[in-house]
Amino acid sequence: MTDQKKRTILKTVALSALTSAVLIGCGKKEEPAPAPAPAPVAEAPKPEPLKIAFAYVGPVGDGGWTFAHDNGRKAMEAEFGDKVKTSFVESVPESADAERVIRDMAQQGNTLIFGTTFGYMEPMLKVAADFKNVKFEHATGYKTADNMRTYDSRTYEGAYMAGVIAGSMTKTNTLGVVGSIPIPEVIRNINSFTLGAQSVNPKIKTKVVWVNSWFDPPKETEAATSLINGGVDVLFQNTDSSAVLQTAEKMGKRAFGWDSDMTAYGPKAHLGSAVINWGPYYKKAVGDALNGTWSTGSVWWGVKEGAIDMVSVAEDVPAEVKAKVDAVKAGLKDGSFHPWTGPIVGQDGKEVLAKDAKADDAFLGGIKFYVKGVEGKVPQ
């Protein structure tokens, strides 16, 4: 290497060292490379809503049994929002059609199914046996399975309160009931209405006409007309339409709404409405399914749980009568009053409940007799 080249290399090295020294002296340093941005965290997929289906025995309409169930469905839907997705089929007969509809609901991916009338019990049991991953809820029945629960409302409490009003307002001491299907639930309501009336008026007699249907406005109208022509001046019903109240309105008599507030159908005839609020139970049942605590069994709710009430009592009902109804309601709520407290005598004069004895749910669930004061025979 020539001396000239050596001097050039030494100068370059020296210049580089000097430059580095100057930079360090000025406080400048080489910046580290920026760290790579973290990968975005994927959001967990939103859980699919619980699919729930309801089978209704009548049309939803704007009054009665099915209307009350649908109001309960809407209240539950409002409670849980997008956690649930509901659907319903209305006017499903208590026949082979019920099994077809309920089976179709299960096949469509509904994992909670409500059947809202007594006649769906056997069809639901059949479908439940084939769809073990689906939870079934049956209204007013008594048979259960591992994946089928029963639920009911103590409608007899509303019937008793209606009776207290009817017994106070009748002028003929003759009351009438339009009955649907002669099962213990309905017979119990007829008797409870009579017992409530007799608690304020021992002279009360009750006549019954059966229509053998839950919803048949023409038959209900015919039955109500027959009762009025037979001397009845206050009507009660265990049917689903407003026909009985409307008939009383047209014929100048008094009557009650049933299952929902029916004031608008007969404002002059209307004495009050014995209503069911299904909302509390539907919220409980769906909550159980969502949080994994659902189990089989039987649930029976009344005034105490907010499921039964007497509403829109007519203005001309005396204050003392309204006070009696309020006292009954308060007693039902705190458990200090039971409508079926002995002595209670059957139609044949034999004691069915001893003095001070209170009917338990087993007794109430098996009533197939009329109490004293109810005329006619229980259909077989």
Low-confidence stretches: 4-29
Number of strands: 14
Large-scale geometry: elongated
The strand order across the widest sheet is: 2-1-3-4-5-11
CATH classification class of the largest domain: Alpha Beta
Q: Nearest-angstrom radius of gyration? A: 35 Å
Total domain count:
2
Distance between the termini: 129 Å
Q: Level of helix content?
A: 25-40%
Domain ABC transporter substrate-binding protein PnrA-like: 51-316
Keywords: Signal
Protein name: BMP family ABC transporter substrate-binding protein
Organism: Hydrogenophaga atypica
Helix and strand arrangement:
Layout: H1 3-25, E1 50-55, H2 65-80, E2 84-89, H3 96-107, E3 112-115, H4 121-130, E4 135-139, E5 148-153, H5 155-169, E6 174-179, H6 184-198, E7 205-210, H7 217-229, E8 234-237, H8 243-251, E9 254-259, E10 270-276, H9 279-291, E11 298-301, E12 308-311, H10 319-334, E13 344-345, E14 351-353, H11 361-365
Parallel strand pairs: 1-2, 1-3, 3-4, 4-5, 5-11, 6-7, 6-8, 8-9, 9-10
Antiparallel strand pairs: 10-12, 13-14
Helix pairs in contact: 2-9, 3-4, 5-6, 5-10, 7-8
Features:
380 residues, alpha/beta, 6-stranded parallel beta sheet, 6-stranded mixed beta sheet, 11 helices, 39% helix, elongated
